[in-house]
Structures are given as structure tokens and as C-alpha cells.
Amino acid sequence: MTAAVPSAPAPAPSGSRRRRRRSGFATALPFLAPALLAYAVFVVAPMFESVRLSFFEWTGFVGAPQEFVGLKNYIKIFTQDAVFWTALRNTVIWVVLSLIIPLTISLALAVALNRPLFGRNVFRSMFYIPGVLASIAVANMWRWIYNPNYGVGESLGTAFGLPWLSDIQWLGDQKIALYSVFAAFVWQSVGTNMVLFLAGLQAVQSEHIEAARIDGANAWQVFRNVTLPALRPTMVIVTVLTFIGSIKVFDLIVGMTGGGPAQQTQVLALWSYQQSLGNHQYGMGNAIATVLLLITLLIVVPYLAWTARQEER
Amino acid sequence: MRTKRAVAAIVAAGMLAAGLAACSAGDDAGSGATTITYWKLTDADDASKKAWSEILNGFEDSHPDIKVKVEERSTDGHKEALRTALGTSGAPDVYWSWAGPGIGGEFVKAGGSLDLKKYYDKYDWTSRFGDSTLSTVKQYGQWDGVPSGQSGAGVYYNKELFEKAGITSTPTTYEELVEDADKLVAAGITPIEFGGTVNWHLMRLLDNILMAQCGSDTFQALVTTKADWSKEKCVTAAFEEFHTWTQKYLTKGWASLSDSEANALFFKGDAAMVIEGSWFDNVLRANDVDTSKIGVFLFPTGTGQLYGDVSSNYITPTSKHPDEAAEFLDYLTSEKAQKISLDLVGARPVNTAVQVDPTKEDSLDKQWDPIFADAKGLYEFNDQALSLAQTTEYWRIQNLVATDELDPADAGAEFQKFIDQQ
């Protein structure tokens, strides 16, 4: 007969450990303080200022009065601003497409260029180069490509006797203009994500892949069950960066369409900017910026928390 | 060793501080001259660049105690830079701007203009300018800016393409203009070009059609929002006509083109007409267009009014050198400077003492003389007549109609809805 021995409760943190933790924080504080201060001044304070301004009417000129209007700016953007909903819809489309198309292409390129191919470093560089170009230069280049009078579509259409190709208004037709700009974004962004994925692929143990193959796994099964799980930390980073980068898309749109035609390629970040600096309605502009901030936080924070929990498991 | 390092650091910091102090004092400390900053549009052609260089050198030579630091920008870049900088320490001492309510008026309303009454008295500027230009100075209640120029905008046309289409004379009524556009289409010629990426280019067509359909009084009542855009029948008629132009007569791919890309079609003879300002004479010459083959006529609105704008140079209230800035503006509008602009660029002088000499004008410039002389008043570009937010909405509706996404019959009501919500 054996007596049941109750399991001992987990020991409470001892006083000395708590003291050590506190003293660790106190030791770290002087080192963290400068960065914390800079973060507070240059990131947090402007963010709060932006939110504050969203409750005011202000032209943006120094010295011009700021009149408190409560939720009026929010009511206006949600109920009266015809462009806001177009901008929100376009932003959502842009984010969803960004999380699917460039990411998939980047991952495919990374996997392909992780193999021992002849000239793979040259290919890696070639695919990465668009990522280092200034967005406005990319915009100019693609505007030229899409030019209805001497662009690539026009030239190919004329050369191959395809008038329908020559007639496509890549940036002028509001049904396709957003997707035409998005094509430029894909061209520009796949290289950067490819490099991140390549870095992640270096962490995949070759022994694991070898073992899976010995067990009879085919290429897809190896990728699905070995490579992809090992890439999870990289995937989280790339997904978050892509999400944040795409939700605040601005420069390519400005450079290629300016939000036109008829505001049909408008996005939230650009509309916020144009309301503030173009129309001198800083309250409306900051209300849109606040909505953008909330959407970002509502998606990014839970996603990061969820991935952190997944990793702890 | 530590002491040496400390001394070196102190000396270096001292030198840096001295350097920064010298910088903050600007050229004032270095040469004894006061430096004023001037923001203007970029000169697009060699003649304008040469004229500006001569005027600037003339001013600095005659005022060795004042230096002018000039910053030039594109049309939209200039507007945005001013909107961002006015009222801050980064604002220039003097800036050029369109004088109408939608742009210059917004700057004035935002406190971006120093009241120049004392300088008007000091330099007797009131006797220098005509009544029409002076009225723009006082339109916002104080003495804002000094007139810089007046531009008219008309329909530039390619004489050879008109001839090829069998058009023997320029249209005198709106209906004749439409008939001519039909003749051009029948001859396989694109009647008119505009670039859609800058909304203000195509806006010129809508503005003029609106004037043609509504007449002067209603047009003015509409742009000052005293008339209801949803109730005036001429507004619907104007949007319907505008829609027809965009579907039948406008160059292919206009929505993807900038103004300069679209104008290149006119230079090459690929489009027969465009609505441009009198500054376009120089742009044509700069692009090696034979101006003897180009003509210009006033858009036949039936009102006899000239479409165009007045521009001014403003001194900012934040300027630390308003006296020097006023001296600069006095020189810019002097007979000497205005004559340089007239001789080299063909710019219409705002100084009434300087008269246009027809013997020095080329055939294109000459066509503007009777247009300016016979004009029965001025109606401004609508992006200068409407407020900023209204302009943005006006452009949106204009483009929706032009791209067939909004029924022209609903356009007036759509715009009025926006005005009512403001």
C-alpha cells in the first residue's frame, strides 16, 4: 500500500527573486530611457496629437484657431464623405492582395533560389533590385509602361495586331487602374520579401529534410510538413511587415494616379494626406488617420499575440 | 590624455556652435547683405529663364545690400509647399501665387499675407496698376500682394489640321465649335487633348462649357455657391455637353496622361486643339513648334469674357525682412523689369506704363492683343474660384462624368450635396 503523496504546490517567487527582477529593471532603465524617450517624443506623442486633432476643425495653418467639434469629423467621414468608403474598400483590397500575391511569389522565388542553381546569386540580385528603388522612380517607370500612346501595351498591341491590347487604359480605366498600380507594387516588393524568406530558409535543418525524404515524403510533403513550419517565425515577420506596409500604401498611388481617375484608386493614407494638406481639413484628415491606426492595431496586435502563443506551445 | 581630449571636444563644440551661429545669421553676417527668400513656379522655357535671370541680376546689382534666394517648384509642388510652410518659420519672405479665392484667397484667409497698405503708400503702387488688377489686391479686405501678371486662356488650334478638316474660320458660337469638332472627327483627327492625371487640365473644358451654357451671371452665382447646382438647368446641360466632348472628341487615354504628356500630342500635330493660357506661346516655342501654324481664339461662351487668372506676389507676415521684400516687389513691377518680361517672354505687363509693342510680337502673340483688348471681364479657373474642398469634389464629379461613371443629369445634384454638407 502506498500512501498518496500530494504534489507540492509550485513555489511562490521568493522575495530575493522579486528583488532581483526589480533591480534588473532598474539596471536596464538608464540604457532604455533614451530610446524610450525618443519613441515617446517622435512616435507616441504625434500619434496622440493626431487623434486629438481628429476632434477639432483646423485649417492646419499655424495660428489658425482649432475648434473642438467632438465626433463631427468621424460622422462626416462615415456618412458624408463619398471618397472615404472608396478609399477604405481600395485599402482592404490592396491589403488582401498584398498578403496573397507578392507573398506567394516571394516564397516561391526564395524556395527556388535556395537550391544550388547555376547563377543563383545573380538571380537573387536581379529580383531584389526593384526593392531598393525609390517608389516614386518605380511609379514613373510604370507610368511610362502604361502610357496609352507609347507604352508597352500600345507597342505590343500595334506590333502583334491586337488593337484591344492597345486600347486598354491601364491607369485611366477606373475598373482596372488600382490593379495596374498593384502590379507595380508586386514587381517592387517581391524581392525584399524573397530575401527575408531566404534568410528564414537557412534555418531549416537539412537533416530534417533528409529524414523526411528517407521516410518517403515527396517534394510537396517536405515543403508542407518540414520547410513551412520551420519558416513560421519568418512568415510572421513578413506577414506583419507586408500588412503594415500595404495598409499605409501611399507613394506608388501618388506617383501613378494621384488617387484618380475620379478618386477611384484612392486609399486611406493618401486621402488622409489630401484632406489635411490638400483641402486644409486637418480634422477630417486626422480622423481618417485615426481610423487607419485603429484598423492596423485591431489586426496586428491580436495576430502578434496569437503567433506568440503558438510559439510558446 | 583625458584633459587633452576634453579640450579638443570643447574646441570642436565651440567651432560647431560658431559655424551654426554663422549659418543661422545666414548671408546677412557673411556679406553684410540681407537675404530674402522667394518661392515661385519653375520657369518651363529658356526665354522665361533668361528673363527671370536678367530681372534678378538687375535687382541684386541695383540693391547690393539685398540678396534673393529663389526656390522654384512645379505647379502642384508649389501649392503644397506653400500650404505646408505658411505660418511657420519655414515660410519664404515672398511668394508668388494665383490670386483667386480658391488658392491665393485660402492663403490670405490662413494669415499667409502681410497687409501691404504702408508699402502701397510708400511706393505709390496704386498709380502703377490698372483698376482690374488692383481690385484683386483688395478683394479679401486688406492690401494683399502686388500684382504679378494676368493670363488669358483660350483655345489653341493647329491651323493645318483645321484646314485639313475643311474648317475655314474659327468658331464664334459654341454650336460652331461643336460642328468643327465633328468635322475634325470625320477627317480622322483628334479634336482636343487634355491630361487627366492633373485634374485642372480637363477642368478648363468643363469650366468653359459651364460658362457657355449658363451665361456669366449664373456662372458667377454657381461658383460663389449663391446659386443651387441641383436646380439650374444649365448645369445639367453643361455636364451633358461635357460628357459628349469626353466621349467623342477627347484624345485617347486622356485619363492616364499628365498635362505635359497630353500637350506633346498637340506639339506633334496629333490633336487639333487644347485650352491653354497665354503663357503657352512660349511653351510652344520651347518645344520647337512653328507658331505661325498655330492660332488661338477665345472659347465661344457667348459672354465675351476672358477665361484666365491674375497672379500676385505676397509678403508673408512671418518675414523678418518685409522692407527688403517690398523693395524687391517694387523692382519686379518696375517699368524696367516689366519691359524685360514683355520683350523676352511676351508676358502681359501689369505696370500700366509699359505698353505692348505689336511690332515686336510674333504672329501668335499678336493674336492675343485683340482678345485682351476686347474682353468684357474675367472669369477665373474654377480651381481658383471654388474653395479647396469644393475643387476636389468638382474634379471628382468632372472625372466621374468623363469616365461614364456618373449620369450627367445627377452631377449638379451631387456637387450641391457636397456644398450643403460643408
From TrEMBL, chain A:
Q: Where is the ABC transmembrane type-1 domain?
A: 88-303
Locate the region Disordered: 1-21
Query: InterPro entries in the record, alphabetically?
Result: ABC_transporter_permease, MetI-like, MetI-like_sf
Q: How does it sit in the membrane?
A: Multi-pass membrane protein
Where do the TM regions start and end? 25-48, 92-113, 125-145, 176-199, 234-254, 287-306
Coiled-coil positions: none
Q: Which CDD domains match?
A: TM_PBP2
State if DNA-binding is listed as a keyword: no
Keyword match Cell membrane:
yes
Location comes to: Cell membrane
Tell me which UniProt keywords the record has, alphabetically. Cell membrane, Membrane, Transmembrane, Transmembrane helix, Transport
Specify where it is mainly localized.
Answer: membrane
Q: Which domain of life is it from?
A: Bacteria
PANTHER family tied to this protein:
ABC TRANSPORTER PERMEASE PROTEIN (PTHR30193), DIACETYLCHITOBIOSE UPTAKE SYSTEM PERMEASE PROTEIN NGCF (PTHR30193:SF41)
Q: Which family does it belong to?
A: Belongs to the binding-protein-dependent transport system permease family.
Q: What name does UniProt use for this protein?
A: Sugar ABC transporter permease
Q: Which organism is it from?
A: Naasia aerilata
* Taxonomy of the source species: Bacteria, Bacillati, Actinomycetota, Actinomycetes, Micrococcales
UniProtKB/TrEMBL annotation, chain B:
Would I find Ribosomal protein among this entry's keywords? no
Which domain of life, per UniProt? Bacteria
Q: Which residues form the signal peptide?
A: 1-24
Alphabetized UniProt keyword annotations: Signal, Transport
**PANTHER family from the entry?**
ARABINOSE-BINDING PROTEIN-RELATED (PTHR43649), OSMOPROTECTIVE COMPOUNDS-BINDING PROTEIN GGTB (PTHR43649:SF29)
Q: Which family does it belong to?
A: Belongs to the bacterial solute-binding protein 1 family.
Q: What is this protein called?
A: Sugar ABC transporter substrate-binding protein
Query: What is the phylogenetic placement of the source species in the record?
Result: Bacteria, Bacillati, Actinomycetota, Actinomycetes, Micrococcales
